[in-house]
C-alpha cells in the first residue's frame, strides 16, 4: 500500500496538524500490517469490507479503547476516500461499517475553589527553582484555565499574539484556523511579569512566548508534566491533564451564564455539538436554581 501521497494531501490540502498526520500514519501502518499478516494482501485495491471488519474485531479483542477504534476506522476510510478522489480506487471497503458505540463520558473538571488555588503565587514559588520558572508555571496554569485553549495552541503562542491594548490573545487552532480570545487585565499583568523575568533570564529573540528552563520553546510533555504536577497539589481528580483545564474553563463559563455559542467560539469548536457536552455538567446548578426559585419548593 502506498500512503505517501495521502500524507502529502493531508498536510497541503487538508492542512492537518502534525499530530493528526502522525496518528494517520500509525493507524494506516497498523492496518497494512494486519492485511499482510492475516490475508497476505499488499495492494489497497484487494482489501475487502470483510477484512476491515476483521481488523476492527481484532482491535476490540485486544481491548483497544472504543475511541481509538473509531479513529483507526476513520483513518482507513479517509485514505480510501482520497484514492477515490484521485481516481485510483472505485470502491471504499471502510464505508458504511458500523462503529462500536462510545460510552457516554462527562468531561472532568475542577471546582471553582480548586481553580482559585491556581492563582496562589506560593503554589509556584515553593516548587519552581527560580522566580522566572515560578511565574512561567503560573502563567501556563492560569492561561489554560482562563482561555480554555488547547495545549498545542498554548505552545504555539508568540509574544506578538498578546494584544494588551485590545485585551485579547490570537490563537492558531486546528488546521491553522485563527481566533481571538479575550483576557482580563490581571492575566495580562501576569504575562507582562513573566516576559520581564524571561527577558532578564535569557537572551532574545525567542521562538515562542513560553520557554523552558533553558530558554527554548516548551514541548507537549513539558506542559503536561507541569499541569499534572500542579493539579495534584490543588485537586483530587484522577485525571490531571491540560484538557481538564479546558473542560474546567467551559464548565465554569456555562455555570456563570455564558451562552453556549460564545463558549463554542472561544474554544474553537467547529460545531455546537462538541460544546453541548458541557451542559451535562451544569445540571447540578440547574437543580439548585429550581429548588430556590420554583414556588412549590418554597
Overview of the molecule:
It is a single chain. The protein is mostly helical. The chain has helices spanning 4-12, 18-39, 49-61, 66-85, 112-116, 121-125, 131-147, 151-155, 185-201, 220-234, 242-255, 260-267, 272-275, 283-293, and strands at residues 162-163, 168-172, 178-182. A hairpin with a 4-residue loop joins strand 1 and strand 2.
Poorly predicted runs of 5 or more residues: none
The DSSP helix count reads 14
Strand content: under 5%
Shape: globular
Q: Helical proportion? A: 55-70%
Order of helices and strands: HHHHHHHHEEEHHHHHH
**Main sheet overview:** 3 strands, antiparallel
Average pLDDT for all residues: 90
Structural class: mainly alpha
Rg, Cα atoms, Å:
23 Å
Spatial strand order of the main sheet: 1-2-3
Would you report the number of β strands? 3
What is the rounded distance between the termini? 69 Å
Please describe the structure with a list of short key phrases separated by commas or semicolons.
single chain; mainly alpha; 298 residues; 14 helices
List the helices and strands and how they pair.
Blueprint (H helix, E strand, L loop, with lengths): L3 H9 L5 H22 L9 H13 L4 H20 L26 H5 L4 H5 L5 H17 L3 H5 L6 E2 L4 E5 L5 E5 L2 H17 L18 H15 L7 H14 L4 H8 L4 H4 L7 H11 L5
Antiparallel strand pairs: 1-2, 2-3
What's a quick, concise take on this entry?
This protein has 298 residues and is mainly alpha-helical.
